[in-house]
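@channel sequence for tomorrow's demo:
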Amino acid sequence: MKAEILCVGTEILLGDIVNTNASYISKRLAALGVEVYNHTVVGDNPNRLKSALKIAFDRADTVIMTGGLGPTYDDLTKETVAEYFNLEMFEDEKSLNEITAYFKRTGREMTENNRKQALFPQGAVIFPNENGTAPGFAVQKDGKTAVLLPGPPIEMMPMFKNSVEPYFLSMTDETLVSQNIHIFGMGESTVETKLRPLMLESTNPTIAPYAKRGEVRLRVTAKAHDYNSAHSLCEPMVQKICDMLGDVVYGVDIDSLQNAVVHALKENKLHLASAESCTGGMISSRITDISGASSVFSCGVCAYSNEIKEKVLGVSHDTLDKFGAVSDKTALEMARGVRKISGAQIGISTTGVAGPDTDEGKPVGLVYVGIDSPWYSDVLELHLSRGRRDERDDIRYMASSHALNLVLNAIKKYKGIN
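structure tokens (generated this afternoon):
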């Protein structure tokens, strides 16, 4: 199946909103084994929409559209699709009742033009909208399929997951299963070089690399007649890749470094505390984004000034005076200090120059990440600058990622001695 994503909305073209729908749909379609060759955005103009729809169907058998399902006069996506397929529109009583109930439930007045959202082309498979008033639908004719979804991501995403994915799966007797290998500390090009022969020879399962912010994700996807058979094809390949790449793999289907850290801390009944300077609380923010982090995260100290480093964390005045705040000695003392005041088994710290200006005569991008525990202490010296003036946020984020990865390494060493 070849698909094109056609997003409707003048506000996207004007840059008023970011088109996150296309990214989300592409990822979900890839997991279903549906090939996406083109993304198109068109404004709320009936003639341009008709032209874009024709072009899309000339090069794809399935077109997934978002937007233009509202009640106003310029919401013409449904009408354009019905005209393309030469289908009459009908009012769906069940959808109308659900729209009416939605307005009643939310205490809002339903105007007459909202009835328009209960109109569909003949033969449409209707997708309920549990988060808004615009149902979606799919319609097929002459080997072509149109899938129409609401524009707001809060409505589109659950509709795609709950209705569109089962709809596509019902059209085939095969099941796709994917597992994701998460990598930190090895770039995409190096990963691809190491795995290239394996990637070229593997057709079921397939292996696909994706670059993430400072990370790499490998998706292993297998196709079979049922879930268990597909999963059994994935497992040995996932294990083989993990063995080939070694410690740079921080998890399988774990989603993020912070999720992996919280999971590993829980599994080993350990607590973590952070002391941050250049990252300004980013480590603690990422950790506490994860549900259940309160059971393993003791505290986070944002020690931006030398006075706080000294008075709260116990960093030696002589260390700050002789080596400076941005130094391996300071980073280690910060990690030890936060571990001491918190009672956590692991203390992690960051201190560095995020830029755009230098500090203490030290270059932008120089960051020290310190870790301290009863079984392992270390300091990483990082050079994270890529020479851009606007890289402050990237430096801070990458420093926090290295810190989280260092915590995972400490936990691995703990497991090795216990």
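heads up for whoever presents: The longest strand covers residues 215-224.
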